[in-house]
Amino acid sequence: MHASRVRGTVNGVAVDRDVPNRLTLAEFLRDELGLTGTKVSCELEVCGVCTVLVDGRPVSACTFLAVDIDGADVLTVEGLERDGELHPVQEAFIDEFAFQCGYCTPGFLMMSVALLARNPAPSADEIKEYLDGNICRCTGYRPIVQAVLTAAERLRAGAASGTEEARDAREAREASDAG
Amino acid sequence: MPGDVTGRALPRVDGRDKVTGRARFAVDVAFPGMLHAAVVRSMAAHARIVGVDAAAAAAGPGVVAVVTAGDLGGLFPRFGHIVADHPVLATGKVRYHGEPVALVVAGTKAEAEDAAATVEVAYEDLPAVLTPPEALARGAPLLHDEESERGDETFGEAHSPRSGTNVAHGVDSGWGDVDAALRGAAAVVETEAHFPMLYAYAMEPYAATARWVGGALEVHTGAQHPFMVRDDLARIFRLPASRVRVVSEYIGGGYGSKSYTKVEPLAAVAALLAGGPVKVVLDVEGSILTTRADPARVRVRTGFADDGGILARDVDIEMDGGAYADNGPLVLAKAAARCQGPYRVPALRVRGRTVYTNTAPSSSYRGFGAPQVTLAGELNMDMAAERLGIDPAEIRRLNLVKPGEELLPGKRPIDADLHADLEMVVQALESRGESRPARQGALRGTAFACSASDAGAYPVSTASVRVLADGSAVVSSGSTEMGQGSRTVLTQIAAQELGMEPADVRVVQGDTGTTPYERTTGASRTTTLTGTAVLRACADARDKLAAMLAESLGCSPAEVTVEPGRAVGPDGRVYAYADVVRRFFGAGAGEVVGLGIVRKEGQFAVLPPFWEIGMVGVSLDVDPDTGVATVDHLVTVGDVGFAINPAAVEGQDLGAATQGLGGALYEELLYDGPQLVNANVVDYRVPRMADMPRRIDTLIAQRGDGVGPYGAKGAGEGALNPIGAAVAAAVARATGRWPDRLPLTPERIWRLVHQPDKEGDDG
Amino acid sequence: MLPDFRLVRPTTLEEALAQIGEDALPYAGGTELFIAMRGRLLQPGTLVDLKRVRGLADIRVDDGWLVVGAAATHDAVAGSEAVREHAPLLADVAPGVGNPRVRAAGTVGGNLCFAEPKSDVVTALVALGAELTLASAEGTRTVPAAEFHRGPYWTVREDRELLTEIRIPPAPDRRGVYVKFQTRERPTVGVALVTDGGSGACRLVVGAVGEVPVSLEFPSLGAVDPAAAAEAVDPVADLTESVEYKRHVTAVMAARAKERLEEAVAGAR
């Protein structure tokens, strides 16, 4: 088994070890680091379930060598939360019911983070174009688009007030549902 | 009546787990010393196994064991809840290309797969039958020449094999004198439709991890029905059910495809023979080769009076059930039960068969026979409307049953207002007015379709509620969470009934070792049946709290009132549940356990527990140059009685309709000879985000007409069932020609537009 | 599971050239290579990582020629001002390749060398008259993009050669459009139509529908004949699309390309 040295970070934590060349990034994250939030499905790069960010760029971890994170910073779904506070994209997915079984969710979250980093105010069409490379079999996609729009709004409004906005919006929606 | 918690879009209780990646699926389970198994699959569609040479594999680095059927003596090495015809590993012969023949168990997945690639199996080919006509032909080879044992007796309606043939199950049912009625009809309209072979395509492939602890078996899996799997495993290993534990913590998509036993026996035998925990994880191709859905050729002949009233209907169904029965026979039985659609049919004849073929086994998929027969049945209604010069909505209004009318003799009368549901769809389609198609020259077509399914499966549910000494509660149910939102709905019911904050209620599901018995999670039944079990468990807890408080106060239970959230003593003093518990036990500790049972009695004495209505509308644009159909407007109506969580209902309806659009426009598994050629998601095309209809209306009708909690009925399949038919009819209106098969790929639509008399390459 | 392999990471072109060979395959993103390896269609003993080779991913302008380093990702091409200015057709095609993850990791050179028939990039490059530079230990040679693909997954690149650059000739009056028909994961047909502003001559290139792109020349935009394009291609039937249908949509897309280019040219006046 051939291996190469990998020096990088995963969710801000340093990695410095020999890694088998044949290991994909998904296998490395899941089996070596115990970060099982990143899932594997199609293994053909078309479903997006395994999306992680490498230096901010979205990649299919199932078809990316673990050894190729040498010198790079990797962000997975586990890295979105900070001190127990959910990332606004995560909050928005909950508020907009943008998941059901949850298997595709980490991939969609990472793609959404990548999108909002390059385009903080995407239109619904731009969201659909960017996320078209991710498959969801449960939701029919509509709430995912809405969640990204909501997350974009809140990120633009600023993190702190965004949380209050989320609470207000949720309460307003629940009140109108009950009525 | 609904209170604070039910009837609102409470954020899903599994939300945090799922958005943080902490939700543990079968593939995420790990144990110390865990081994990995790779599956060796058959290269032949129908063949005797002459020999298996695993010497190189057994000697491979890290390999601990190689398992074949020969190692399973001493076990009952078959499973199958209707017919126990499915060997754990191919025994003596293989019956489909891709059937598991051997398992290689090693320290890592890579070692197992590297070794598995070296296993050589020698086959002596047998003639193979790859389609129902081939399998039914005179002299066709039999896939199952021995009669297999019955599975679970309660599946009797699905067990009528025709011995000496490849018919796994046959139906011949109906009522009235169909032939006489047809002779007297003003018009007899005949429709033949082909429903494709589909794959549920859950994003989570099949996976299971098994370990043996002190002679007891524990399997972590993604099974929708852990208790059914438990019973299959108990029989295989000749164990009491109490020593088999099956756990489904979260399921990454089920849609019926994770109903009943799949890869659990593989993991369990591997763990037994390798002497350590073993994880089996299939890839997408392996998953498709494990279970796919039933294609069907359905012929409908309906006799109409000249006002469009249905006089009689004659249906013939032929399903391709694949190599093993799995749940295929029940799909046929249910298809037969849905041939009258939501209509008053004075005389009905249904004949059908599901046929063994040397292809991957078929099993449940959302809709369960209804999509197949609804395609033919609703196209038939639209063809009749055209022939008789009647408006398509009018012909349906005339024939739809009214609330309280029987659809199936002796069964629960229809518990929905179908006419009102139809109006909702028709109005939604019309209300936005005629919009211009996105592309100039596009052909627009609009249609709607309806269905009614006897849903809910069989009422056996139990649940427990533990009210803890601090006033919080744990609800325990053998149902499972596969994305449909059961965990959240059950939380809402319990919070409502106990007057607690949802955050104080924890729902634990899907563990045969610790949660009480739930027969199945599917057939859209959980809200209605499991929900009622939880409701009753909460009522039982309240009764017990009353008795406890009465004893503590020295009065009779009749003098105590227990409401959600509080108990009131004879003097009007109010006690929190926590107080009642602590007083009773005296140590500031303890708990009270309420039990709820649902059986075929009371409001569930008459089956089905409820009727699941499908009422959808589709407006689409066809590009005549390319045949591409773009859905402009999608309307669904969820007739759910009471929506305990409206967001969950809408999510299920849109998800179901989207899967329906997949089967209508894009999806089809294709065989080339003995081999499946598109067992991957590049070549099997599922709906993507760019396919979203431009306008989507997910409507909910709540008329309190269900026997579930607060008047609820189930949801989850209704919006899929009629979609294929609505799309086909919309394409017919756009192109001027009736399609006879799904999926309506661009080429098929293009041929409808341009080549009315010519067969395409794909036939 | 990928098969096992040795990994080398050269930092100069010379090192890379010394290391590649029949059993030592160059890679950058690996987006197509790893899938082939996972399917055991390819099992190279060694992989040569090109991502650290200095200059191989550079995009620059050299004496009017747009030079795209083979290891430039599709994203880099899509976002490059130099590409937008000197070869806008390529800038239009790059954002549509695969999906965002494929574009973030996959490279133009990798795409060309893997030679998946259903590809957009080579079609655009043939239309632009691009020239590909192949380097080896013995020197370099130039191959027109139109001659690079010999068949499915088969190029003129020898095992010891490395594709280093894609060079696009200057043509300030050139205008072009790319029209793609795609209903599944891979395009069914891609039509690139460019007109040389000066003479008015047009080149129409049809890709993805056959084993290799097919190129037709017309004396003017008005003379572009979609039916001729449909006749010229040799479509490969698919699971859901017949030869007849593919030939038909080729004509449709060629007609749409002509229409769009006519509008663009009229708009520019």
Describe the fold and architecture.
The complex is a heterotrimer of chains A (179), B (763) and C (269). Chain A has helices spanning 25-32, 88-95, 105-118, 124-131, 142-157, 159-178; strands at residues 3-10, 13-20, 51-54, 57-60, 73-75. Chain A has 179 residues and is α+β, with helices and mostly antiparallel strands. Chain A folds into two domains: 3-79, Ubiquitin-like (UB roll) (Roll); 88-178, [2Fe-2S]-binding domain (DNA polymerase, domain 1, Orthogonal Bundle), CATH 1.10.150.120. Chain A has a five-stranded mixed sheet with strand order 2-1-5-3-4, covered by helices on one side. The longest helix of chain A has 20 residues, at 159-178. With 763 residues, chain B is α+β, with helices and mostly antiparallel strands. Chain B has 18 helices and 30 strands. A seven-stranded mixed sheet of chain B has the order 3-7-1-14-11-12-13. Chain B has a five-stranded mixed sheet with strand order 9-17-16-15-10. In chain B, α14 crosses α15 (577-585). Chain B starts with 14 loop residues before the first helix and ends in a 9-residue tail after the last helix. Chain C is α+β, with helices and mostly antiparallel strands. Chain C folds into three domains: 6-49, Uridine Diphospho-n-acetylenolpyruvylglucosamine Reductase, domain 2; 59-168, Uridine Diphospho-n-acetylenolpyruvylglucosamine Reductase, domain 3 (2-Layer Sandwich), CATH 3.30.465.10; 175-268, 2-Layer Sandwich (Enolase-like, domain 1), CATH 3.30.390. The longest helix of chain C has 26 residues, at 243-268. The termini of chain C are far apart. Chains in contact: A-B, A-C, B-C.
Topology:
The complex is a heterotrimer of chains A (179), B (763) and C (269).
Chain A: E1 3-10, E2 13-20, H1 25-32, E3 51-54, E4 57-60, E5 73-75, H2 88-95, H3 105-118, H4 124-131, H5 142-157, H6 159-178
Parallel strand pairs in A: 1-5
Antiparallel strand pairs in A: 1-2, 3-4, 3-5
Helix pairs in contact in A: 2-5, 2-6, 5-6
Chain B: H1 15-20, E1 35-41, E2 47-53, H2 55-58, E3 63-68, E4 78-79, E5 86-87, E6 93-94, E7 100-106, H3 109-116, E8 120-125, H4 132-136, E9 167-175, H5 178-183, E10 187-195, E11 207-213, E12 216-221, H6 226-237, E13 244-247, H7 264-274, E14 278-281, H8 284-288, E15 296-304, E16 310-322, H9 328-337, E17 348-356, H10 370-388, H11 392-399, H12 418-431, E18 443-455, E19 461-468, E20 473-477, H13 486-498, E21 505-509, H14 526-553, E22 561-563, E23 566-568, E24 574-575, H15 577-585, E25 591-598, E26 610-622, E27 629-639, H16 646-666, E28 671-672, E29 675-676, E30 695-701, H17 723-735, H18 746-754
Parallel strand pairs in B: 1-14, 12-13, 16-17, 20-21, 27-30
Antiparallel strand pairs in B: 1-7, 2-6, 2-8, 3-7, 4-5, 9-17, 10-15, 11-12, 11-14, 15-16, 18-26, 19-20, 19-25, 22-23, 23-24, 26-27, 28-29
Helix pairs in contact in B: 10-11, 10-17, 13-14, 14-15, 16-17
Chain C: E1 6-8, H1 13-19, E2 24-27, H2 33-38, E3 46-49, E4 59-62, E5 65-69, H3 74-79, H4 81-86, H5 88-93, H6 100-105, H7 108-114, H8 121-127, E6 131-136, E7 139-144, H9 145-148, E8 149-151, E9 154-155, E10 162-168, E11 175-181, E12 189-195, E13 202-207, E14 214-218, H10 226-232, H11 243-268
Parallel strand pairs in C: 1-3, 2-3
Antiparallel strand pairs in C: 4-5, 5-10, 6-7, 6-10, 8-9, 11-12, 12-13, 13-14
